[in-house]
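#lab-general

N.A. 3:47 PM
ok so I finally got the sequence cleaned up, no stray characters, all 229 residues accounted for. can someone with queue access submit it? mine expired

B.Y. 3:52 PM
send it over

N.A. 3:53 PM
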Amino acid sequence: MSERLTVGILVSPGYVVADIIGPQTVFGMQPDVDLHLLWKDTGPVVGAPAFPTVPTTRFADCPEELDVLAVGAVGSEVLGDPEVIEFFGQAARRARHVIAICGGTFVAGLAGLLTNRRATTNFHLADLLPRVGAIPAGTGIVVRDGDIWTAGPVTGSYEAALLVLAELRGIEAARRAELDLEFAPKPPFGTGSPALAGPELTAESVAAFSGWHEELAAVLDRAEVAARA
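B.Y. 4:20 PM
back already:
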């Protein structure tokens, strides 16, 4: 019989659905898993792109012990909310494994979890990792440092979740989950990373996401000012 697992996933106004769908699917399809969608309250929130979501568990009711705590990118208002960062840091320090995907890496970083740890995020934001104390470890991969797993979006979300499942229930369980999900990515256009896309297309993508980069940099600026106060 499988060990019962308790999994928490942070959702919020503006959370990026693609970043948390891997943990939600991989663990949600496993037997004997209690899965909690965590937010301040249980009123509906809208993820991005437009994806209405109903949190299941308030921060105040989060289980004391989590086997997995997962987070993806969130909006700048949420990232700059001390209540969210404090909750995440406390829950993460009690969790066996933390999965931070894409911009979610900065939630973990602002919570003080990445100081002198190797980490990654999506390529648009990777240059900001040292500002939360992290050691950049490249992009397009899953990076593990102790009990913290970081990755870029979409496929990284699934890959990190499958690797954590293997830690908790063994490789055979993870192999079966990968098959059940038919997780065998075959990008149709072969442009899913800067190395594959080339400099011109990569520059277009970086420019398109420059506003997000600026918003995150501003949040980090405010966090640094608050820390010095």
